[in-house]
Amino acid sequence: MKSSRCATTPERLLIVYVPELAALLREAGSVPPLIRALVSKSPARHLDEASLPLAELLVDRPVAAAALTRRIDFPDDHTGIWLRADPVGLVPDLAAVWLQTDHEFPPGDWTDPLIELFRDEGLQWELSASGRGYLRLEAVPDCRFRPPWQLAGESLEHVYPQGGEAQRWLRLLTESQVLLQQCRQHADHPDQIPGSLWFWGAGHLPPFDEVRSRVNRLSSGDPAAQGLADWLALEHLPEESLATPQPGTVHQWSGDLTESADTNLQRLLQFLRPVWRQLRTGRIRCLELADRRSVRRFRPVDAWQVWR
After folding, report:
1. How many CB atoms lie within 10 A of CB 298?
2. Which residues pair with 296 in a beta bridge?
3. pTM reported for the whole predicted model
4. Crossing angle of helices 225-232/65-73, nearest 10°?
5. DSSP secondary structure string, 100-115?
6. CA–CA separation, 214 vs 46, rounded Å?
7. pLDDT band at 13, cuts 50/70/90?
8. Which residues, 6 or more positions from 286, have their beta carbon under 8 angstroms from its beta carbon?
9. Is the pLDDT reported for residue 215 higher than 80?
């Protein structure tokens, strides 16, 4: 089967990863012509929902998020199949219950009933120091779990697990919510207790000899980036260290979410202009522009055809 990646050497490939690109485009009053052309005139390839986007961009294959972050959190115990089971907040209103995935919950007595719940199910639940929860599984569930970055603006009933084994995981989701609600009712600080667990990212790490990084360095402030660089033996740089990204790099551009979408897109435009010139002159043989859900690929000929 022919690979979908650009057939070029790592030294001539540049990948720009903009996690919030879709949200910026949706919220902006005006999109700069170059960025509008890039996202409208090139087909997008969807990234796997169970994979960490940065990892899939690096090796051009899905890499299970749970297995990769397990390697980061527990370097001596990460082999096998894992499922993330993260503490999350629940925010109810008159219309729905909303998930809060950007809040951290300190360990406490609330973890004990969850450990017991999963022990009765034949599973062991662990909470890492990073606040990430894990379940070791015998097999990847026949189930579609939504990753946290797809939950913004979604009510709980619209993002439940789907698939052949969905009922089991929906039951565990519901039972964890009941137990945690009981803990919150008797707690002095209920805001420090999650409202639920969230399952996602199931799978195992591919053998090291079956993966090869498509670039030589990773420039990112993502908490998982250092672990990714370590796994793939890559140079890791802070996100802000490269004013102009260099070929041979996956560069994460996060922008400033305290600023408006229009301001961020203008800054992204300034960031992309020298990149586009490098593509037009052939210094870059392949440029990829990605967000959390998809990636678009461009070659030098596209730099002359997509936008002049």
Report:
1. 22
2. 289
3. 0.88
4. 90
5. E-S------TTHHHHH
6. 18
7. very high
8. 6, 8, 12, 13, 14, 297, 298, 299
9. yes
Distances (CA, A) of 211 to 114, 208, 214, 269: 35, 6, 9, 33
Q: ∠4-7-9 over CA atoms, to 5°?
A: 135
Q: Minimal CA–CA distance to 173: which of 150, 146, 198, 155? A: 198
Q: Which residue has the tokens 């600023």?
A: 259
- In the block, tokens 């959390």 appear at 292
Query: Could you give the CA distance from residue 65 to residue 213 in angstroms, rounded to a whole number?
Result: 17
> Mean pLDDT over residues 176-190, rounded?
93
pLDDT band at 2 (very low <50, low <70, confident <90, very high): very low
**Residue in the block written with tokens 């170059």:** 34
- What is the rounded distance in angstroms from the CA atom of residue 50 to the CA atom of residue 190? 31
pLDDT value of residue 153: 73
- Report the Cα 255 to chain-centroid distance in Å: 16
Cα radius of gyration (the chain):
21
Q: Is 255 or 118 the better-scoring residue by pLDDT?
A: 118
Confidence grade of residue 99 (pLDDT, cut at 50, 70, 90): confident
What is the greatest pairwise CA distance in the chain? Answer: 65
Pairing between β-strand 125-127 and β-strand 133-137 as defined by DSSP bridges? antiparallel
